[in-house]
From TrEMBL, chains A, B:
<protein>
    <submittedName>
        <fullName>TetR family transcriptional regulator</fullName>
    </submittedName>
</protein>
<keyword id="KW-0804">Transcription</keyword>
<feature type="domain" description="HTH tetR-type">
    <location>
        <begin position="17"/>
        <end position="77"/>
    </location>
</feature>
<keyword id="KW-0238">DNA-binding</keyword>
<feature type="DNA-binding region" description="H-T-H motif">
    <location>
        <begin position="40"/>
        <end position="59"/>
    </location>
</feature>
<dbReference type="InterPro" id="IPR001647">
    <property type="entry name" value="HTH_TetR"/>
</dbReference>
<keyword id="KW-0805">Transcription regulation</keyword>
<dbReference type="InterPro" id="IPR009057">
    <property type="entry name" value="Homeodomain-like_sf"/>
</dbReference>
<dbReference type="InterPro" id="IPR050109">
    <property type="entry name" value="HTH-type_TetR-like_transc_reg"/>
</dbReference>
<dbReference type="Pfam" id="PF00440">
    <property type="entry name" value="TetR_N"/>
</dbReference>
Length: 207, 207
DNA sequence: GCCTAGATGTCACTGACTGCCATATTGGCA
DNA sequence: TGCCAATATGGCAGTCAGTGACATCTAGGC
């Protein structure tokens, strides 16, 4: 029974993901066309061919239909970080974890990368989305200490959080520079991003 | 004419500030009593003796009636930073600016500090307020580069922003530790905060 | 081809926030 | 003192995000 329901869930999960992507694409087009504020959820739902109520079954907020982690990057990051020893936790550890995720993100052909850049541009241009994206980063930086070390002291928890926040800042800056960078004549967008990320990390060290 | 209106504005501004404080106090009590989400703006307005419409003339959002900078700290910080040379802009510059603001905040007797701690605790306990507070910090980190250097390059603008974000992170951590610290037997709350802040800055250097 | 879980739609509702217009207050001036 | 004009306030109607409840529909497994 459990196996059956899980397999069914697997099929349904794929469908759900497909619907999510459809809604997101409809939303992105409307936001790019008319702006985030001027677009209502009802319009997005209509464009995606679902009811407004269904929209909120897929995304908890209007912002989240842009920011939702469709490709499981958060999970990939956590997997990378679980291998790290919480006692000797340094900035380099998260940096390499992020690096691995960004590299894998490069492997998955440019369609995903293009969508990401589209989203990133929209986020940069929309205050409400910037705030929501920021909230996501911060949520991460508060969840990860709990996930990493259970027996660590309060002092080291703060240390871990600081390290994570700085790593998040690096990623944010890298994504921003990447989104602002010239689109013309880009053969390897993901690699490009990786180079920008490394550069930002290097600059961070010269603080 | 201009002088007159400014003097009138001065008197009215003081009244407006008084009303703002009244609304904020009413809001704080209700939030502490029933929680942020469970409290409606209508209830706050009623408790403060104004109409709901007037509430939104004083604060743009429900969150802002907690976070609004009643004491002009942002302005004080900007004043401290204006004296800095944008070309040789280091983390220590913002740190000392924040330090000066926090110290001045200590001078103004403990009533202000107590209110701040109250607010800080509420913010920590309320996700919606945490996000809004975060947004404020980030807005600052995007405005200050423009304010500091007009002729600086894009590269140094990013550098300035990074420095500011790190400084903001230090302040956030310090405020959090301060709010979480024991209330019992505190003679000098502001000085206490200053010590915590210095400690956080020192720890940040060991990243 | 039925049976049930999960997906979807509809409806009604709350609550934040805004624009508009009428009214009340108040500081400054004749 | 009493009027004028700027400003503050209230009331009202409306938009829109988000939620709960209930009915219906769909599709996978037997």
């Amino acid at each position: 029974m459990i196996d059956t329901s899980q397999q069914v869930g697997d099929l349904r999960a794929r469908r759900r993901n497909a619907t999510r992507i459809e809604i997101q694409q409809a939303a992105l087009e409307l936001f790019e066309e008319n702006g985030f504020e001027a677009t209502t959820v009802d319009e997005i739902a209509a464009a995606a061919g679902v009811s407004p109520r269904t929209f909120f079954r897929y995304f908890p907020t209007k912002e989240e239909c842009v920011l939702f982690d469709l490709y499981g990057f958060d999970e990939a990051l956590e997997a990378c970080l679980r291998a790290v020893d919480p006692e000797h936790f340094a900035l380099a550890d998260i940096e390499s974890a992020y690096r691995a995720v960004i590299a894998g993100f490069d492997d998955q052909r440019s369609e995903v990368a293009a969508n990401f850049k589209r989203i990133q541009k929209l986020v940069l241009a929309t205050p409400a989305l910037s705030r929501a994206a920021l909230g996501r980063y911060t949520d991460k930086s508060r969840q990860l200490p709990d996930l990493l070390g259970t027996g660590t002291s309060a002092r080291s928890r703060v240390h871990i959080r600081m390290v994570i926040e700085i790593a998040n800042l690096e990623v944010q800056c890298a994504f921003e520079e990447w989104a602002e960078s010239d689109d013309t004549a880009e053969d390897e967008p993901g690699h490009e991003l990786l180079a920008i990320y490394d550069d930002v990390c290097a600059r961070m060290r010269t603080l």
